[in-house]
Amino acid sequence: MDFAVELILVFVLLTDMTLLGTGRLATSIWLSAVQGMALGVLPLLVAEHEITLRLVVFAAVVFTLKGIVFPRLLSRAARMADVKHEVEPIVGYSASILIGLVIVILSAWVGAAFPLPIAHLPVSPVLLPTALATILSGLFLIVSRRTALTQVVGYLVLENGIYILGAALAQEEPFLVEMGVLLDVFVAVFVMGIAIFHISREFDHIDVDQLTSLKD
Amino acid sequence: MILALVCVPLVAGLIAFGWRSDAGRRMLLVLSALVHLGLTAACWIELPAPMWEGWLKLDSLGLLFLSITSVLFLASSIYCLGYLGKEHGVSHIDFEEHLFFSNEPEAVFTGCLLLFLASMTLVTVSQHFGLLWVGIEATTLASAPLIYFHRQHRSLEATWKYLLICSVGIALALLGNILLAVAATGTGTTSSSLVLSELLIVKMGHVSWLKASFLFFLVGYGTKMGLAPMHTWLPDAHSESPSLVSALLSGALLNCAFLGILRAHQVCAAAGEAPFSQGLLLFFGLLSMGVAAIFIIAQADYKRMLAYSSVEHMGILAIGVGLGGAGALGAALHAVNHSFTKAMLFLVAGNVLATFGTKSICDVRGVLKVIPWSGVLWLAGFLAITGTPPFGPFLSEFTILKAALDNDRGWVAGIYLLFLAIIFVGMANSVLVMTQGPVTGTVRPDPRREGWWSILPPLGLSVVVLTLGLYIPPRLGRLLEETQQILSPTVAAQPPKVAQQVRPLR
User: Fold this and answer.
1) Which of A54, A164, B177, B292 has the largest CB neighbor count within 10 A?
2) 8 Å CB contact of B178 and A169
3) Closest to B153 (Cβ–Cβ): which among A162, A187, A202?
């Protein structure tokens, strides 16, 4: 089981890096979809005791939302806004990958310096660094890209990173709260999708650099 | 009872989405606001019983914030009647760029207003950190369509910034939740419940993780609350949304986010880490006041000026809690005073905007002559918000100042007074110029735009603010003392002051 968990975590790390290096929106959305699917499987593997129905339902919901529904919503927004490619990112793709490497090294260091203080949970040592690296790459995507859609992908990656930590640590987290969090993220993506549609109609593009009429 | 508080606006909101008749929907809005206020008033007589194993519970702190929200919502919904009447129609001319735009469908607007109330109510009654998070994120999502009521590019820009910045901020607070769960995991026990009452008594296994979690809560919910330097979305959203929405955002929503920080502070204080959380609150509070002071001077847009004033007052709230003791009481009172005053100011600003058709301070002259009611209220609101006696904010700001001096924090008191003075001068400069003088030639004000629907709510709020400055009802006084007990539990928890003061003699 541990091997499978680590395989998934490494896979997530690789998708993070690929996301940082890609400019095609369809690829970005697709990458976030596979990442979401992998994370849907994660809670089934982390559980050290028997797999309950509750856990299966949860995993299925995560898999469907993160792996299928969110990407669908985003692709629809991309189609309606008629964008295919990221325009001139603020930080170039190769530089982004280099920064991604720095993020991974930093996360590995933090993970080693502050081990999770939970003795009774056998957590893979790769988990904390992966979660941190995913959170940081999500944040980096949000600040370094100009297209509103890529920023939403960045937000999803950030959520995925937090989810990795949550799935491993807060297993006692009540079902209702988990569902509430997922519902919120779902509505957030939905509302952002609508906003992107309006931005594309109002500005003829979804390049948020042009959103500069409000300032002091 | 608690469920009814959340469900009344929730159900009403869902109905409003599907209801065809405009008049019926508006009645539904005011009616649910009245029912909500009635239920809240009933809670003042007797606190409702906790539900769902203590997940939903109304304590004094929650009741205080719930009452603010409920009163403001009623005022805004009455204002809304007049506002929607005026805004009715297919296309409008943009005040600033003279382009045509249309409004959001009224059903969506009303529905989202009610859902917004439901989510804010959920925040005030939830005792479980996960549920609290769900509530706060829901407030963002319900209010985003409200900001985009006028479908033009500036409000769209404000909405996008609001959505993205706040969602990312609140995602960081979710990380705070997880870290808190780690911190609460004792050395032996496996369960880590995130219910507040249990977190207050549990022995924190890992204090450094608790501190980390408080940091994430502060930055995450602080983004939503508008603490500098995470406040960047706030002036845009407040200036571009319809005035009644600005009033709700500033008066009710910011408080709800603050409640999230206060809950985390409660846990820190119970674990004996109050100095850590108080120090951070003080720092961010002073920083917010400073940033607000800089941007209020020479501000060209009066709605943005009010928005920065909200940043300032959120800073004052943080400082009050950061000082602890009487400062916490002052902060609780100030939350009430600020919310009512600022909501009233935003509603009056809406009247000024509707009459003069511009948000620029330079172009608005002679408000007192053209619309006397709004002019007087605008002046009164300015005096109140800058802490002039005999209005309520004076009393609470003074309490916080006194707490700073009593705490031997002379430097905090000094900086606090300096920023208050700068902001007073900055706001006076704009407000006095706007109210006085003859109307200039470029703008043609239309005084018919001021109706009774838009005067009565701010008038009522200003009467409350004035009353609170002169007389605090005993029941409210008791509630404030209880919140002080919650926010800074015992004096004994702090290290003895004398020991710190004595320095080795050389």
Assistant:
1) B292
2) yes
3) A202
Q: Helix (H, G, I), strand (E, B), or coil: what is residue B56?
A: strand
Whether A15 maps to a domain, the answer reads yes
Contact B178 A165 (CB under 8 A): yes
A163 is a domain residue? yes
- CA pair distance B461, B183, nearest whole angstrom: 43
Contacts of B137 in chain A (CB under 8 A): 181, 184, 188
- Residue A215 located in a structural domain: no
Q: Is residue B294 part of a domain?
A: yes
Q: Which residues pair with B100 in a beta bridge?
A: B93
* Nearest Cβ partner for A195 among B140, B163, B194: B163
From A192's Cα to the closest Cα of chain B, the distance in A is: 7
What value does the mean pLDDT of chain B take?
A: 86
Nearest Cα neighbor of B328 from B253, B274, B382 is B274
Nearest-CA distance from B185 to chain A in Å?
A: 8
Domain that holds residue A11: 2-207
Please state the ipTM of this predicted complex: 0.88
Identify which of B168, B181, B193 has the shortest CB distance to residue A169: B181
Domain count, chain B: 1
**Is B141 within a domain?**
no
pLDDT of residue B504 exceeding 60: no
Which residues in chain A have their CB less than 8 angstroms from residue B240's CB? 214
Segment A4-57, tens digit of pLDDT: 888 888 999 999 999 988 888 888 899 999 999 988 888 777 766 667 787 788
Mean pLDDT of A66-82: 85
For testing contact with chain B, the best of A145, A171, A177 (most B CBs within 10 A): A177
- Reduced 3-state DSSP string for B293-318: HHHHCCCCEHHHHHHHHHHHHHHHHH
The Cα–Cα gap between B278 and A18 comes to 42
Residue A30 lies in a domain: yes
Nearest Cβ partner for B156 among A172, A183, A199 = A199
Which residues lie closer than 8 Å to B345 by C-beta, 6 or more apart? B306, B378, B381, B382, B385, B458
Secondary structure of B120-182 as H, E, C letters: HHHHHHECEHHHHHHHHHHHHHHHHHHHCCEECHHHHHHHHHHHHHHHHHHHHHHHHHHHHHH
What tens digit of pLDDT does each residue of B158-215 get?
888 898 899 999 989 988 888 888 887 754 454 557 787 777 777 777 788 889 899 9
CA distance B192 to chain A (A): 7
Domain that holds residue B451: 284-490
Check CB contact of B402 with chain A, cutoff 8 Å.
no
Rounded CA separation B235/B249 (Å): 11
Total residues belonging to chain B? 506
Q: How many domains does chain A have?
A: 1
Whether B305 is in a domain gets the answer yes
- B contacts of A117 (beta carbons < 8 Å): 182, 185, 205-206, 209
B394 within a domain of the structure (yes/no): yes
Chain A contact set for B163 (CB, 8 A): 188, 191-192, 195
**Most A CBs within 10 Å: which of B157, B215, B294, as the mutation test of the A interface?**
B157
The C-alpha atoms of residue B327 and residue B487 are separated, in whole angstroms, by 10
Bridge partners (DSSP) listed for residue A24: A85
Q: Which of B160, B211, B305 to mutate to test the interface with A (most CBs of A within 10 A)?
A: B160
DSSP letter at B202 equals: S
User: If you ran DSSP here, which 8-state letter would residue B272 be given?
Assistant: T
